Amino acid sequence: KDANAPDFIFTNIVAPKSKNLIGLLPEKEKDPKLRPYYEFTALNKDGREIEVELSVSYPTYRGGLATQGIIRDITERKRIEEENRRAYEQIQQYSTELAAKIKDEQRQREIATILAEVVASVSLTLSTDEFLNHILLKLQQLITYDSAAVFLVKEDYLIMEAAYGLDSHLVNQRCEQNILFQEMQAQKSYILIQDTQEDARYQFWEGAEKVRCWIGAPLLVAQKMIGYLAVDRHLPDAFTAHDANLTQAFAHQVAQTIYNAQLFNDLQEAQTQLIHKERLAALGQMAATVAHELRNPLMAIRMGVEYFVRDLSKNDPRRQGAALMEANMTRIDRMIEDILYISRAPKPSLVPGSLGLVLENEMAQWELNLADKEIACHIELADKLPLTLMDSDQMGRALSNLIGNSIDAMGPGGELRLSLHSEDGCQIITLADNGPGISPEHRQKIFDPFFTTKARGTGLGLSIVKQIIDYHQGDISIWSEADIGTKFTIILPQIEKGVTKTSRKAPQASS
Known about the structure:
Elements lengths: L18 H4 L14 E7 L5 E9 L2 E2 L2 E2 L2 E6 L1 H46 L7 H12 L7 E8 L2 E8 L9 E2 L3 H9 L3 E3 L19 E9 L2 E10 L7 H70 L7 H27 L6 E3 L1 H18 L3 E6 L6 E3 L1 H18 L5 E9 L2 E8 L6 H4 L17 H11 L3 E7 L3 E9 L1 E2 L2 E2 L11
Parallel strand pairs: 13-15
Antiparallel strand pairs: 1-2, 2-5, 3-4, 6-7, 6-11, 7-8, 9-10, 10-11, 12-14, 15-16, 16-18, 17-18, 19-20
């Protein structure tokens, strides 16, 4: 009604925020059939803003075109439209958040499944190296990396136990406990280096020349660091803090898996030792019977052989058969002694003594056998060596077993070399032969009871040697190579000015 008043001015009802829209309204449409609609904010007679719709038409009036406008209040309709728009946006946002949440939950379930598989991997019938490699492959399902490695603490250094994406020759290599290791040990948390070329803490090493981004996560068991897990990329800034946290969570599970594997190995070893002790106990029970049933007949046979050869001339061919009988009786008697010794496991009676004198006595007893087999023997004993706390009988037995093994391994023309010297407060015995050598797979087992590579033998000789050396607080190691020979090294503590030195470990050799 007010719009029809003579003094009505259209622009007066337009709200200030819509003034700029008025200039956009066309004065005249080219097509009179069109009826355009315009929406803008207007002011009612109370000065309150309302939303309106203006429809414009161009009727014929007095022979010409006139402009006719109809204004409708659409405030309520706009309110409903705005509510619908906001509701739609909220639905869209909720859908997006729900999809992200579902995706995140699926990822979390995937991570939990992978971590559970890591813990379960200890039950796989794999070696330590194999299950650690299996674990590194699992890690690839969590984060992308170019290479990864597991380092474990061994005394005061580190060993790379497993690696993926690195040269295989780097595995089992010794590494120093560097600055990053010490920092992880102190913080008990991961370290993320976004660019190794810009961080002085990172020390490049062989095989890591391409590393640019690096994460190190400590392997913790009851807050004790047993090693660390390292992953890297060949591009800087390739890892995020989320990747580092994920690696740390993974490392916690790896540490527990390694710990469980060690417990499992300890259990297996305990079971093996229990079986071994049971076997030795059974052997001990029969040892007295064997000694009684075999030694008495052997003594009678030996006396008979001595009586038989008494009246034979030195050139009588029957003496050769008698000598063969005596040699075999000696071998059987020694086997009985080995069985009795390993079953009783007698503790040594340690008193100060001369290792050089023990060596000379044993070589004197083997002298005839060496000559018969045409084996040359070279002995080098240092002069004026300090005394050693030892049981001379047991030490002589250990040396005799080693000498006998070397003689058995060599044929005519073989060479046996023995030496004794003092070094760093210890006395070192070496016994080397030029026999066929011992294969790598056998070197790991030669000190085990009942293990033998001989067609005849109890497999107790070297086990007895190891037991005697251990009782003397010493150490024994072996070096051997096919077609070159075998060398045993024994290190024993010596007495210096009333003090017995602690023996050091013999150097281990793999070939």
